[in-house]
């Protein structure tokens, strides 16, 4: 399927950051109307802080809807129809199965998430059983930077917010592998809950990410 190139999409949204002014959080849909006319974005499309569509914050299905719209109606962002500007990846229509997305395309929010969880849980799985001060500092520093630099900004904002909960209960637990792996599992479950996905039973994080399942299917 031919799609509008990123330049065309960006050109449509370039300089329109006020038009699509975002709420800081990705936790809810918002309806934004502008002074010069109404603009409409497909459901689930998340804008970057500069007002342009954020590919790594958006599911592939929503991205495709956006590129289709851009091709069909290059002036869609100033059309007179009603405006729905979503900051919530949850609002996206059903995502095409990963197998229907060519493997050499930029990641959408889900592919990015899956790969990142693989990295994060694997880091926990290979973390020392008992970490010394330097190892704890290194991992703490990594998580701090990671939560600022993660390429889906709405995800990053939420993750930072969760870690910084005033109770202090969500601060990374870095003493050793078991507690760090459990903490990572809880962090992931927090996102699962937000997205309406089933929670993972954290008693099994090590089988999933370190040793392989006891039934031997990973051996
Ligand atoms: C820090 C972070 C924040 C994110 N925030 C958002 C967001 O705000 N909005 C959004 O749309 N997407 C977000 N994502 C992406 C989202 O979490 C998923 O990765 C994505 O939706 C794909 O989900 P999935 O069902 O393929 O499995 P994933 O959630 O990616 O999980 C991959 C695999 O990990 C295992 N697993 C699942 N839960 C756990 C757990 N608790 N502990 C250990 N293993 C587990 C399962 O075997 C699963 O198949 C975020 C990702 C990250 C890394």
Fold blueprint:
Layout (H helix, E strand, L loop, with lengths): L5 H8 L46 H13 L36 H17 L7 H17 L3 H11 L13 H18 L10 H7 L8
Helix pairs in contact: 3-6, 3-7, 4-5
Distance between the termini: 40 Å
Q: What is the helix/strand order?
A: HHHHHHH
Structural shape: globular
Which structural category fits the helices and strands?
Answer: mainly alpha
Total beta strand runs: 0
Protein name: Sulfhydryl oxidase
Subcellular location: Mitochondrion intermembrane space
Organism: Penicillium cosmopolitanum
EC number: 1.8.3.2
Descriptive keywords:
single chain, mainly alpha, binds flavin-adenine dinucleotide, 219 residues, 2 domains, 0% strand, Four Helix Bundle (Hemerythrin (Met), subunit A)
Tell me about this structure.
Residues 105-209 form the ERV/ALR sulfhydryl oxidase domain. Residues 74-108 have a biased composition (Low complexity). Residues 19-39 have a biased composition (Polar residues). Residues 1-53, 65-108 are annotated as: Disordered. With 219 residues, this protein is mostly helical. The chain folds into two domains: 1-106, no CATH class; 109-211, Four Helix Bundle (Hemerythrin (Met), subunit A) (Up-down Bundle), CATH 1.20.120. Helix content is 42%, strand content 0%. The protein has helices at residues 6-13, 60-72, 109-125, 133-149, 153-163, 177-194, 205-211. Helix 3 (109-125) packs antiparallel against helix 6, helix 3 packs across helix 7 and helix 4 (133-149) crosses helix 5 (153-163). The chain is globular and about 60 Å long. The model is unreliable at 14-38 and 78-91 (pLDDT under 50). The chain binds flavin-adenine dinucleotide. Flavin-adenine dinucleotide binds at residues 26, 89, 109-110, 113-114, 116-117, 121, 150, 154-155, 158-159, 185, 188-189, 191-192, 195, 197, 200, 205, 208.
């Amino acid at each position: 399927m031919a799609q509008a190139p990123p330049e065309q999409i960006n050109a449509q949204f370039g300089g329109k950051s006020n038009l699509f002014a975002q709420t800081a959080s990705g936790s809810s849909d918002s309806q934004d109307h502008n002074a010069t006319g109404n603009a409409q974005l497909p459901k689930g499309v998340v804008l970057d802080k500069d007002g342009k569509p954020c590919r790594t914050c958006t599911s592939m299905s929503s991205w495709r809807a956006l590129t289709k719209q851009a091709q069909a109606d290059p002036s869609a962002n100033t059309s007179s129809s009603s405006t729905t500007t979503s900051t919530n990846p949850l609002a996206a229509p059903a995502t095409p199965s990963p197998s229907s997305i060519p493997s050499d395309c930029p990641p959408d929010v889900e592919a990015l998430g899956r790969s990142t969880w693989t990295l994060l849980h694997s880091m926990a799985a290979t973390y020392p059983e008992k970490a010394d001060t330097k190892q704890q500092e290194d991992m703490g520093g990594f998580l701090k930077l990671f939560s600022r630099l993660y390429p889906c900004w709405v995800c990053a904002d939420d993750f930072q917010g969760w870690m910084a909960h005033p109770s202090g209960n969500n601060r990374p637990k870095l003493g050793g592998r078991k507690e760090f792996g459990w903490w990572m599992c809880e962090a992931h479950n927090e996102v699962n809950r937000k997205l309406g996905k089933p929670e993972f039973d954290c008693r099994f994080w090590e089988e999933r990410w370190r040793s392989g399942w006891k039934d031997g299917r990973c051996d």
